[in-house]
Amino acid sequence: MKPSLKVLAPGFHTTVQDLGRIGYQDIGVPVSGALDGVSLRLANALVGNPPAMPGLEILLSGPTLEVVADAVRIALVGPGAGLKIGGENPHVVAGGQSVTLSRGEVSQVVASQFVACCYLAVEGGIAVPLVLGSASTYVRAALGGFEGRALQSGDMVPLAIASAPDRRELRLSNPLDPARDQPIRVIPGPQLEYFTQEAAAALLGAEFRISQSADRMGMRLDGPPLHHRQGWDIVSDAIATGAIQVPGSGQPILLLADHQTTGGYPKIATVISADLPVVGRRRPGDALRFTAVTVEEAEELCREQERDLLQSEAALLPVEDKATTVDLSSLYGDNLISGVVSGLE
Amino acid sequence: MKERFLSAGDRALIVEFGDRIDRRLSHDVLRLNATIRSKALSGVVETVPTFRSLMIHFDPLVTTRGDLEHAIRSLLDHDLGQRSEATLWRIPVCYEGELAPDLTEVAQLTGLTPGEVVAMHSRTRYHVYMLGFLPGFPYMGDLPVELALPRRADPRLRVPAGSISIATSLTAIYPYESPGGWHLIGTTPIRLFDIGRPRPALLAPGDAVLFQPIDRACHERVRRAVEKRSYEVVSEPIGA
Q1: pTM
Q2: In which element (H, E) is residue B73 found?
Q3: What is the CATH number of the domain that holds B12?
């Protein structure tokens, strides 16, 4: 039998994602890819993969997976997420470190109640075929990933290697900061002139809340309506990830990885690329505040984030036997014992 | 109008030529697109031509918006090339029965007979302005003014794949089943998007399209041939 992970329970919305499908937006194919590329890259680093390898993106609640291979090294990364390993008397492994499982072992991903997504990387990668150069799943057009869709019970997720090499497990030297209260930095425009001054001021001054209409395509935000000055129907143009578009209702929509490549609503501002992972981690019901930066500041923040990430990838530490498990199980105990994470309902 | 440079975040720069759906603006967009692609500017990740602007996605770890704007201004001023080669496609369409669910209504709303709607729609040569909304979804124009209608007041939740649609000054084809608010006046049996092809999208921005009316028997024959991958859409190269 091919080495794989058998899906015993799929979680709320678990898909294969890499860092995106680049180069096909001109023919209408969204970029897709991880909502939080930082966490995916760190997960890959922990299992010795190159940064852009596909992993599992886990939204809101986690899957339960059984190992159908001799030895599989996995790592889960996402603030507050953990793995519950074994059936009757499970032990708990916190996120942010690698762990190797043997044939028949069952692990349940327990997602944080406070963070929308976490990422599971597997040493050697997930062996799904690349579609237009990427393994990312785009569910709306059934492109890429595992059969173009979210995982379901009974799926056998194919793995590239059957037996992970024996070596020291690794952990992140610093826990990932969920940045739950950080204001989201935006660059105003490209269609700021379509909005009233009050709307521009409200975007930066008011608090918004992520509504229940949120998925990989985008999140509708509840808050003061953002009124248009000169109509809300523009001749369609291209959309960048992070764009905050405002239809006639005045209720903004923050567009994420699976957004359509073009659209006909004015965009009041665009989230800077360094903050896209922070936005990706926010859940329905979470508050959002926006603050404006210049393009030059955003470019510097992007470079800074890349430097930090390269440093984190290079500074992984060996896992000491036992010690971490005990500490972390108490740390994550509350979250894991309750075991149930609320979904979108 | 002089082109404008607009930031869409720190990874995309827009060069906007105007704010209308207009063949001349489209021509400018496609020329700049072809020029940037042929020059392989440092840090450019991909480009997306639309009706009246070009979005240039770039990697801020390699270049900056400032450097990129400078390089593109210099292309616009001194070094603009021609548009890429394009193709004229003859796309078979059945405008009959349940394959044309809104044809009668469109005829009523425009004061024409269904036959006149079909004749007008199928004798116009369309320009592919851009692709968007769904993989392979072409925005084409311009429709004869007599056929211009606003979008439907009640969008459908399921528009079948292959539907030929019209709204405002445009016509389009749905590559996949999806929700949609345009009027459906025909169906094509061909595949607009197929990852099994070297170029997955049949149509590219700048291409031209003529619709060829076919009857239901022919539609069925072509549909079966498409399924067996033994059907090629008739096409010919057109100059830039």
Answers
A1: 0.93
A2: helix B65-78
A3: 3.30.1360.40
